Fold this protein.
Amino acid sequence: MPHQCIECGRTFPDGSKEMLSGCPDCGGNKFQFKPGGVTESPDPEATPASETATGSEPAPDFDSSSDVDSERSSPDPASPVDTSDSLDSPDGTDAPGPVDRRPERAVSSGTADPDTTDPVEGDAERIDDEEAEDTAQASARSDVVTPDELDRATREAGDPAIEAPANGSESAEPPGSQPGVDELRDELNEQFESIKIVSPGQYELNLMELYDRQEYIISLQEDGRYVIEMPDAWGVTDE
Amino acid sequence: MGLLTSLRDSISRVTDGLFAADEPKRIGIYGPPNAGKTTLANRIARDWTGDAVGPESHIPHETRRARRKENVEIERNGRKVTIDIVDTPGVTTKVDYKEFLDHDMEKEDAVRRSREATEGVAEAMHWLREDVDGVIYVLDSTTDPFTQVNTMLIGIIESQDLPALILANKTDLPGSDVQQIANAFPQHETIPLSALEGENMDEVYTKIAEYFG
């Protein structure tokens, strides 16, 4: 019973879809993560806080999260296939995971069955553990991560990435962790809008985004819509 | 695969060469708002074609659509260089209608101008990506050149390997500091000028012929 509604106390099994639209009993949308075997802590943030504060034992953190998916035959970090290219070490996946795979986890945890999604679930719940529960749950229902969240997660991601080499098991950590942060920055930039409408008549522009895009914005509408010109070779070239 | 790639490159080089011989280079005039881009474009166009490119104004974002003047023939030292001049909207990271209210503009007009200016920046960035063969980067020499926009645009221009001429405009104004611009972009040659007064245009044309000919 890794998830518990903090309103009414109802618990949900790993991978449960029920809580994705709120607690069926009380409608609450805040849940705390209770990994099996771990005694409950009154303050849901106490555990992650102590972990990040000590900063010296990333391995137990990893283990505690992976014991959820202990039936997995191999702790292959490449299980989340679509992101393994950007995060290539087991411990490395640990750190930046909270940021750049959140939408994918949200989809997976909501659609697949617990057995097959254990690795993903493990990650998702670790997020749950590290951050406020409502953040994780909110992200499960929405597909956009706010820049603020990303920024916070980026900062958090830096710590485990530094801790990991201290563990001494993986020699490739330092080079692995730096690209991870860079990837996160890229991810962050990608999620910025090219033109942000602050209010009518007030705009913020992401020049790199405007420059990088093949299509370009011809006309902004009053209601926030915009007209773009599609590139001539759309779908024909390498795009 | 390698063979195909090299073959394609060879063909590309040949066709590029053919076009280079026939078609004028398209030179984008870039820079932040109110640097004097349109004034310069008009100066060049008037000097060599007799026509203007677009209206000039002291209100920022007067140019909100890229304007092109084609087939501008510039003669320098017996050489004739033909270029298309593209006067682009000023590039910025923020557009706020409130800045137009100071210029006796109604809010509705200011909001519309702001929206058009934003579209203009998008267009300018698109041109930079797709459609220019060289860049004249115009800076107001009375203002600090160390800005995010300048650094980013110069960086993009360099990454594209586009020939770039940096002009320190408004040397007729008292606070003009050409050296500050030269210091900001030491990897490029900085040419001082006053597009408004026509000062030092001879050197500008010489450099245009040299860089884009």
Q: What stands out?
A: Chain A has ten helices and seven strands.
